[in-house]
Amino acid sequence: MKLGAANACKNTVRESSWVLSSIKLNSKLGGTIILGTKGRFYPFLMFLFLAFLQVQGAAAQQRKVPQEKLLRRLLELEQKLSPEQIEHLSGGVANYLAFAHSVFDPQTAGPDDDGRKPPFTLSQTLSGGTSKALAKLTILLNNPQARSRGEEENGDAEQISDPRLNFQLSRFTGFTQNTSSSAWCGHNVVTGFQSTLASLVTSVLPFEQDPNLLVNSASSLGVAFSTNDGESFTDLGFLNPGPTTTNINTVMLGNPVVACSSPNKFYYLTSPFFVSDSSATSVAAVGLSVSTDGGRQWADPVSILQKGGLHILDRAWLTVDPHQPKRLYVTYFDFDLDGLFAETAATARCPNVLRQAIELVSSSDGGQTWSSPSIVREDCDVIDPNTGKFIGRNQPFAPQVAVGAGGKVFLSYTVFLGLGAQAGTVTLNFRRSSDQGKSFDPEVSVSNIVLSGDVGRLQGDIVDLPAPAMAADSSKRGGKDTLYIAWTDGRDNPQVDVLGSGSYNFGDILIAKSTDGGSTWSTPKPVSPTPDDFAGIGRDQFQPAVAVNRDGALAVCYYDKRNDPQNNAVDRFCSLSRDHGRSFQDFRQTAASWAPIHDSDIFVDRRGLGLYDTVAPHLASEEDDSFFGSFQIINNAVPGVHGRKIRREE
Amino acid sequence: MKSNHRNQFIFVLWFAVLAPVLLPGGTLRAQAKPQGKSNGQNRLGQLLSFESKFGPSFTNKLSSGGASMFHLAKVLSDPSVMAGTATPQGRMAIEKAMTRFQSKRRAIPQVAGEEAAEGHKPAAVPVNDADLDYQFTRLGGFTQSETSSAWCGDTVVAGFNDSGAFVRTVVENVGGASFTSVGVSQNRGRSFTGLPFLNPGPDPGTFLGGDPVVVCSDSRHFVYASLLSQINFDSQGNLVQALTGISISRSSSSGLVWDNPIPAVTKDLVDSFGSPIHFLDKEWLAIDPRNPNNLYVTYTDFGAFGSDLVCDDHITPGMGDGGPDVHIEMVSSKDGGNSWSAPVLLDRQCNIGLEQNLSGSQVVVGPKGEVYVAYAFIDQKGAEMRIRSSQDGGATFAPTVVAGQATTASSLAIFNLEGNFRTNPFPTLAVDSFGDAHRGTLYMAWTDATLNQVPDILANLFFSDPVYSFGDIVLSVSRDGGNTWSAPKLVSLTPAGFKGAGRDQFMPGVAVDGRGHLAVCYSDRRNDPNNLAIDHFCSLSTDQGRSFKDVRETPFSWSPGHLEDVFLNPVYMGDYDAVSVDATGVNAGFFSTFQIQTNTNPDVFGMRLKP
User: Fold this and answer.
1) A106-110, A153-157, B129-133: which range is least confident on average?
2) Percent of chain B beyond pLDDT 90?
3) Residue of B51, B414, B530 with shortest CB distance to A636
4) CA A201 distance to own-chain centroid
5) Other Cβ atoms within 10 Å of B34 Cβ, number
6) Percent of chain A whose pLDDT exceeds 70
7) How far, CA to CA in Å, does B363 sit from each of A53, A477, B224, B284, B566?
8) In what side-by-side order are the strands of the sheet with B155-162?
9) What is the ipTM of this complex?
10) Cα A397 vs. chain centroid, distance in angstroms?
């Protein structure tokens, strides 16, 4: 049985039949076991089998590395990037790079005193998981069921990722779900998230079960759906990565963004999304998965754009025009290394140097066809033309896109400035398009950003780079094209610190507002300042999400350490405003503060607590509680995705 | 002499402040250089030569204290770590923080926590002064763990690794630097006074690296062993000496004041070419119950090429590509620690490919002055508990006896438990020094993971090991002076009602009190079906280990953070928590020390136990 493919079958709308197949297990205690298991058969398995016959001879000589070409290519690209650029890569890419290092280059596989990077050797003889555990996991994955609310769970935040799926196959990984995105249409809520369980099931298990497997479509993303406004969720285990064939396989790494245009139609954007063709040459892409039944089943992902193998397309963001639901916009960040490789240097947009760009593509037919990319901002590294010596670079980062009531398209992103008079500062910038992304008005600076913590590293060794969270008010009462951008900023509470930069800047969530479609912006202000009676020196807030509902109510949700005077334990809070951001009322989303232990799972990005979480407006409702926020709770070192409607408490 | 020392750069932080001024454009990364030329660089940078030679996985073979020293060397070799302190604003920051800190210091020593009332149900009491955390920085210096205590009469003294001690000794410019600290109780462990650090002495070249072991002879006299490095430069920045060793510190004031440390043993860390020769690690300390002037220190010597050519493949064909020449050695003192014998070699192993290691020695002295040294031989398959004994004060030793075997907890090729932190298969040893009928009985406990193994596909993929092995604490007993040992027996079975696949027990400590009662204490995850949250338990026996009753010491299960403190290696959880008895034999029962992490902030707690 091929579990990953079997469940892909479940996720896709395909005919299936039951066959008996076997799993070979090697047990340390009991020798070899042959286990008969019922599974679902999928026609492409036959193609897989034929394909693998071709490579079997080579594989028998020496164990090949799964996804070898793609991994080697990524290592090649990584060598061209500076440490700070690598830090700008999202967790999905970082995880994959760490995997590549561990396979090919154990000496540089990471911090070298951490005990978890022995000289890796991929097993010559692979064995499957435990019969019992695998059988249980198979049942759970093939028959996903809604969980009823557990009494022991954290307050009334519903657990979205299913903890029953954890620890079935390994004690080392497969139990981390975070970086979530939710969308809510009708009574249906869909939440996407990064998941090491998905990686384990789609990336590791198939190779354990078939030692001759060389490529495999894989997904590092999970998905869960609710049919009762988020009261309970069904976790599918992983987002369908699509089929593996002789011609093509895909790897979806992270950055989930979920949107909906009707109670049935949900979109799930992923980036980076790598597609390998028959020559095993990988191309960089942004992937889109579509469900037409409220998130129960997901079609195979498709590339909405592809670039050559010398690009990493990262941190893509998706939005649906609220008034024209077939119109979609996707923005992303392009690490463009064309200029750095001989074969492409001459025709590169930035010849001989690195290019970093924010780009936009759009669809007017519900995601079936997509425009070619428009450049929102691009920065070429600057070198001395005579010596070739590097002079500096600006680095745009982490774009978001929103659409206003009149169909205008808004983009915001962070720029780390390394050139000119402002070199060394970080700014939050904005651009607007009035022609569906074909052209843009001049770039506007919303605000400078003071990095929180110690230059973006928070207490507890949590990296938090500033990324904007943006929402447009498309309500009738909200005024035309009112916009909000929130971000983490350390300007208001700096404290001396003998380590690092010398200053620890406790982070606040700041929000800026524009009532003229982004031409001018208000002075940023904290959504929830440090309380006067706070017992400690300061507390960090980080990773904001922002949304405006149909009534013009504004929700800003974020992580907050206000309940711990030592600034370690984390809660999720949402601040609600019904007066267009003039005043806010805070609502705690978590029943208990949790310890942010983010390195228990050995395949997780150890730099931080995921990248972002979102809050979704209920576009059909004008009620106060018409927001649904998803976020992580780390319960005794096990991170899971939770969520709840944002209720005004009595 | 003192002014000479002052002319040297004061350990690391001062260096970080001054170096950019004095060494414009210079790199802070320490490299071992011929003639030891060195401009006031990170002193611990000398350690980096070991990794240059043996590769990064060398550190994995060290104890937590040793690994932390190596980690610290790397942290401090990164010029950005303390770059901010080089600015005028940074220097003002230090002044401001020191002012705040010194006003705080005037308030201590103080009782660190609520006093546990006599006669009430025993409770864990704070041992270190948690209010000292976060005084100077949010990014590190708040970790106290890996504990040892000594109990004599009314006084209990606990030692522990303390990254905050390091920050305080450096910022306060006390001379040397200390990664280790002390808690003192004068009411038999009902409340503690937390000291800011263990006195490292005035020499800026001295670094007390941790791995604490505390012993006592009466309620006033305590001895505290630590890893030591002694690295000095002259005023021109030339390396004068680079020594690795084990120190002892003595207190004659019930642990409140400590004399400057004395080296019990030192060896050259690097040779004149900057190549690594020795690193002394994972020491233990014992005191003769009949004569407190007799002290014994055992340790691991990670000897490199050049220390002994027997491990060099050019000299000994068939030794593969060589590796450290690892010794278990012992030094002893007959005068209370003033002078020390030359090292006695107890065992050696060419650590070829870093896959055959010796470490984790513990030394105890029996009621007749007999000396026992237990340690582990560790390879890719597991560990072997070895013991040697001496009837003549350590002059000669009987042949090595194997007390038992251990399967490595977690997976074979990796020491990290579920939750991604490190543990070890080291033995812990105690001798009954008091009883009549069972006087001289030896007890050895260790972590063995033979009994509960579950298939694990990731362990299989990366480590060619198909299972995750849950750790159990096992106990073996010798009633003939260590010649023969009973079959290892589980101290505490996985509860029948346990909901998960298994639970890890790890890091045992063992002790026998004046009534011949036995305590085996350890970390335990039995309360978390996911096997992540940790408690500390003691299993108590009144029948020489035939039966046990378990006592939970922690008021809540805590989640194991290990990445948060910049000064500690990212898989640090400490290597042991020792348990003590009243060495004077007056008070019955045990004193157990352990860490509790509160939202990723580790602090040391203690608890008195009676069967």
Assistant:
1) A106-110
2) 61
3) B530
4) 18
5) 9
6) 80
7) 60, 79, 14, 6, 32
8) B144-152, B155-162, B180-185, B193-194
9) 0.86
10) 14
- The phi and psi torsions of B43 (rounded to 5 degrees) equal -65, -40
Q: Give contacts of B67 with chain A, Cβ < 8 Å.
A: 113
**What CA–CA distance (Å, rounded) separates B128 from B442?**
32
- Please tell me the distance from the alpha carbon of residue B126 to that of residue B317, in angstroms, as a whole number: 55
Distance CA B501, CA B483 (A): 37
Q: In a 3-state reduction of DSSP, which class is residue A403?
A: strand
Look at residue B1 and tell me whether its pLDDT is greater than 80: no
Return the amino acid letter for A453.
G
d(CA A514, CA A552): 14
State how far the Cα of B2 lies from the Cα of B5, in Å rounded to an integer: 5
Q: Cβ distance A414 to A449 under 8 Å?
A: yes
Nearest-by-CA chain A residue for B412: A118
When comparing pLDDT for B32 and B44, which is higher? B44
Q: Which amino acid is at A117?
A: K
Q: Which residues contact A128 (CB under 8 A, 6 or more apart)?
A: A23, A24, A25, A35, A134, A205, A208, A209, B455, B457
Mean pLDDT of B292-315: 75
> To the nearest whole angstrom, how far is the Cα of B356 from the nearest Cα of chain A?
14
A189 or B36: whose pLDDT is higher?
A189
A503 and B81 within 8 Å at the Cβ level: the answer is no
DSSP B106: T
pLDDT at B439 over 70: yes
A121, B464 contact by CB (below 8 A): yes
pTM assigned to the model: 0.87
Instruction: List CB contacts (< 8 A) between A26 and chain B.
Output: 460, 466
Q: For residue B578, what are its two tokens?
A: 């020792």
Decide: helix, strand or coil at residue B341.
coil
Q: At B428, phi and psi to the nearest 5?
A: -125, 140
For B4, phi and psi rounded to 5 degrees?
Answer: -60, -45
Give residue-wise pLDDT tens across range B252-262: 999 999 999 99
Query: Tell me, what amino acid is at B546?
Result: R
Q: Helix/strand/coil (H, E, C) string of A39-74?
A: EEECCHHHHHHHHHHHHHHHHHHCCCCCCHHHHHHH
